[in-house]
Amino acid sequence: MNPLIFTGIPVGLAFGFALQRGRFCMNSAFRDIIVLKDYDLLKSVGVAILVSMIGFAIMDKTGVISISPVTFWWGANMLGGFIFGIGMVLAGGCASGITYRFGEGMVGAMSAVVGLIFFGLMTSVGVFKPFVDTVRGATTITTADGANLTLANVFGIPHYILALAIAGVVLILWAVFAKKGESTKGEESASLRERIFKRGWGWRSTGVVIGLIGIAAFTASASTGRMYPLSITGGYLSTTKTLIMGQNFMTWLPIMLLSTIVGAFLAALIAGEFKLRAPAPKTLIQCFLGGCLMGFGAECGGGCNITHILSGVPQLSLSSILNGAFIIFGCWAAAWFMFLRPGRA
Amino acid sequence: MKRIILLIFGIIVLALIPIFSATSGAVVEVSEFEVIRSAANDYLTAPTTVWNMSEKDLCANLLDGDPANDPFILSIRNAADYAKGHISGAVNIPMAEVFKPENLARLPKDKKIVVYCYTGHTGSRVAALLNLCGYDASNLKWGMTGWTKDTEVAPYRFDPESAMDYPIETTANTLTGNYAFPTVENTALTSEAEIIQIACYNYASGSHGDISAEDLHALITDDDPANDPIIVSVRSAEQYAKGHIPGAVNILLKDIAKKENLQRLDPNKQIVAYCYTGRTASQATAILNVLGYNAVNLHWGMTSWTKDTDVAPGGFNPDTSLDYPFETGAGEEVPVAPSDGGGACG
Predict the structure, then answer these.
(1) ipTM for the complex shown
(2) Is the minimum CB–CB distance between B215 and chain A shorter than 8 Å?
């Protein structure tokens, strides 16, 4: 066993802590912009991607890591992403959302995790595997020398140039077009300790911290030979397989994931927000079914929203950009159906 | 105020582009990588290379009554195990110490060196690296395990019962990436011999653990494709076609230090090399590591992955292994003269 896999513990604890404090959930982020017209979480996601994009580009250029995009299998990306997006609305949280809510004591999120594992395993090793393999096989596209597609290799520009150019231009545009007088609500008035441990974090801090954790995660996991930053679904599946198959699958990712749950639990406990809360049985079943769709979607498309949107998009992975877009479409379709369609509410 | 900070950040990020482009243009005059690679390639492709010596051959050589043709026997086990029992005449230098200049100076350049360890795994690595340093070294096939059945003297014997029954694949895989070679920067010295010696010393004295079949299986079946290593089979094309570890590509040991094969390996990924029983791939592992790759060897090779002897022939058999005499004691400078009677090598 490689002792460096335990670097997953500090990364996971920090990730769980930041998720809980920032209430970082992409389901809420994408759903809120059409249902509530609230853009704060979406901005958090954007900031996290931007920070990671800069970090990954520098680390790739200096040889600390190498950019490792998921395979571009457009059929599986579109199908998996869309179903994952629907699933996360039903489950009431994306992969990171249900994970930090699990740590907070929300029984609905736990039932979604059970569904995610159940259908995730059915897809990765069980009855859905032949179908997913067929879809992937029929729609795989790589570069001429077999590398996985990124915006950089598609356009033939070195990765660091494209990534830093995108990030730099976005930062400058942001500086130019930012609304005047936009300030962080009341954050400055409290002590630093109070702001970190007791109050919810603003979208800027959340985004920057999660982006930095992504960078730390890539470095730590690369030290164990695992060339990818944060993921979630695979960690749940490895943990479950270790429990039911009597063989040790506990590598960096599952150790990081379990620490994430503990980190969220500690954050909630310190802030006085931890409480076991069970929803009505009907909602519990809805969460479970949502988790099932997420499990299938993640294992079909090559990853959950963390693998694709938080970790893949900053690597400019084409697979992740397409998959991420379809997660958003699935989320909007389900949110429209549940909350907005004529005759509802 | 916030706008200015954002603006400054944006400009810094853009400014990194020309800074990085400027630094990547620097040309290195002597590439340590190339020095080591060409030494390794010369060794692996030499037609006279003998990678392993069998226990039978060594014993016969020692007992043929002609001390002039006896090889220099190098034990790389730890001192306590050497004292418990060693092949008559062997000199002990633990693996981590072998590549110190003062120890290399003790080894003959004009004579065959036979390196032995516990099971043949680390002996193979030291033998390969000694060849890079200009010595003529072979590994004693199964190490001390193949020399004696005494489990006090030769622990860690392979048990065929412990072999796994993991799946094998018969469709061929190829690597298609195209990567820059790793940068090897161990020293400021420019003499080729020193560049090679320091790289070998760093590897032999650092961590060079094997991966077990169980751990490798977990890596490739844990639903986390990001941690899947590059798996390189160094077995023959026929054996590769008969069955290989899922996802493995086939590169023969003699071809492992060729540029066209090395450029296919991602220097940032872990590489797992495997062969029949762990010794040939040990050589590949040692060479890849001194070249700056992160490679580990599958312990006991294919014989630990599957019980199918058609796919994994040639495994260590504890029942039919040999039982030759050994000496005890810690004295290192024992003259090379077998004390036991002849004809014991049958």
Answers:
(1) 0.73
(2) yes
